[in-house]
Design brief:
With about 500 residues, this protein is an alpha/beta fold. The chain is built from 15 helices and 21 strands. Strands 4, 5, 11, 12, 13, 14, 15, 16 and 21 form a 9-stranded mixed β-sheet that branches. Strands 1, 2, 7, 8, 9, 10, 18 and 19 form an 8-stranded mixed β-sheet that branches. The chain has a two-stranded antiparallel ribbon with strand order 3-6. The relative contact order is 0.14.
Length: about 500
């Protein structure tokens, strides 16, 4: 098979397929290539307010009304009830200690809930990727985009145009393309074949994962109440969220889907959990459930799903490449780097990358401004990775004392909420940085927050007065960006959604 196109997109996850749809709507000739076939097991499931907003705006700008309902829980349920997803009203965090059941406090000092919507209909969602990605591929085919699944690429040669060769359905395959977008994620076909340099050691975050999809996972709320917790104080049901169980040197995510499937996994600091790195996934999973008995109770009946198969375990999840784009190729964010699932930034960042590339390749094709635009995309993405890494690495350090974590995390949430509001007001656009990464004032405040956190942790056990001083310090630092009343001691770590 011999084909020719303008733009080849490698990978049919949601990022690659959405990019193809946006470029196709602008008249570009696109081919989607994937070595696998849908439906398939994937993680990277949790949406956020800024992700939903970008999704809506892309659907409006590029006239994709069939996709717009996927931006919110309510419209999704009405339009596509056959596509599995989960209700996400916000973010919930609970601090567990080894060999003890979770012990709620009256003032909620070992929990944190931050609402992302004021009712279910407008809520964010967890995307069940086997359904979600397959639906987007079907939409691409419906639009007339060539989708080549079960296509293995062996080589990419030449430039102007590129020539990609391999096998499609066990037959020889070749494609010429003027531009190539790598949306393969960890597969990283382009970086490997272009001999880009790995730069993972530039990242401060150091974690690995044990994870899977499960049935039979119990709700956390009843266990929380059984231990004496007061859900009446919560701004939303704690299970209708990206649920985080924070443990020593790591955390666990729990994402519930309407079908009864739950996506869950531990993210573990490499050094803190080094003694079990060689264990099997099952052995380490069971050890962690026994070590943290309240989490163990929630998962006492859990079994992995047939599509997932056995539990999965990784080495270090972080990865990064030295370049993100050049004049005739680009990496989507989730190919350019991998960080950590904390705070659900991945899908939102991918959508921002999709948005930028769709605009660049749609409006500047065959124009001298395309190359400078791609150079900006490269430096911008690198800058954003640095900021996200600083946030996540700082949170891992703050896990040592949940009072510090519940304050330090506000540097992220203040920036995220501020960015969302500014976007809704039309004060930021397609090519503005994700999470204020190009704003020196915000970067300086983040730097000071990290430095103060490290200084406190270096001096031994954290006293209550010292934890309160840190809260006040962060409250002052986020003041110019604090649009949600964050760091308010009167809220006792319970933050409702403020319109």
């Amino acid at each position: 098979m011999e084909l020719a196109t303008e733009i080849a997109i490698l990978g049919t996850g949601f990022g690659g397929t959405l990019t193809a749809l946006l470029l196709h709507r602008q008249g570009r000739r696109v081919v989607l290539i994937d070595r696998g076939r849908h439906p398939r097991f994937l993680i990277g499931e949790s949406s956020t307010p800024i992700a939903d907003l970008v999704w809506q705006q892309l659907c409006t700008r590029y006239q994709l009304p069939r996709l717009e309902a996927l931006a919110k829980w309510g419209p999704w349920q009405r339009e596509y009830p056959q596509l599995d997803c989960g209700l996400k009203r916000g973010f919930s965090y609970y601090r567990h200690h080894p060999d003890r059941h979770f012990e709620p406090n009256a003032d909620h000092t070992n929990e944190l809930l931050i609402a992302a919507s004021n009712h279910d209909d407008s809520a964010d969602t967890h995307w069940y990727r086997p359904d979600f990605d397959q639906f987007l591929v079907s939409e691409a085919r419906r639009e007339g985009i060539a989708v080549l699944e079960e296509t293995t690429l062996d080589a990419i040669t030449g430039r102007e145009p590129w020539r990609l060769t391999g096998r499609h359905l066990d037959e020889p395959f070749a494609l010429t393309a003027e531009f190539v977008i790598d949306a393969t994620g960890e597969g990283s076909f382009l970086p490997r074949h272009l001999a880009l340099s790995p730069q993972v050691e530039s990242l401060q975050t150091r974690s690995r994962s044990v994870y899977g999809h499960f049935t039979g996972v119990d709700l956390w709320g009843p266990e929380y109440v059984h231990r004496g917790g007061r859900t009446a104080d919560h701004p939303f049901a704690c299970d209708d969220a990206a649920l985080h169980h924070v443990i020593d040197g790591g955390w666990m995510y729990v994402l519930r889907f309407r079908s009864g499937v739950t996506s869950a996994g531990f993210l573990l600091n490499l050094e803190h959990h080094a003694d079990r790195a060689a264990w099997s996934a099952e052995a380490e999973w069971q050890w962690l459930l026994a070590r943290y008995p309240s989490i163990g109770r929630q998962f006492s009946r859990a079994e992995t799903t047939p599509l997932c198969g056995p539990l999965r375990k990784t080495g270090r999840v972080q990865r990064r490449w030295s370049r993100c784009a050049d004049r005739d190729w680009a990496l989507l964010p989730f190919t350019a780097y991998g960080l950590d699932a904390l705070h659900s930034t991945g899908n939102a960042h991918t959508l921002r990358g999709v948005e930028r590339l769709a605009d660049l390749l749609g409006t500047r094709w065959d124009h001298p401004d395309l190359a400078p635009g791609l150079a900006h995309y490269d430096t911008q993405l690198s800058r954003e990775i640095d900021v996200l890494d600083q946030v996540v690495a700082g949170c891992y350090q703050a896990f040592a004392d949940f009072r510090l974590f519940s304050s330090f995390a506000m540097l992220y949430f203040a920036g995220a909420i501020f960015s969302e509001v500014r976007r809704r007001q039309g004060k930021s656009g397609v090519h503005d940085d994700f999470l204020l990464a190009n704003e020196p004032d915000y970067r300086n405040r983040l730097d000071r927050g990290v430095a103060e956190l490290r200084q406190i942790l270096s001096t031994g056990p954290v006293t209550a007065p010292r934890a309160e001083q840190f809260r006040q310090f962060i409250e002052r630092e986020i003041a110019p960006y604090n649009m949600a009343g964050l760091c308010d001691p009167a809220r006792h770590n319970m933050y409702p959604y403020l319109d």
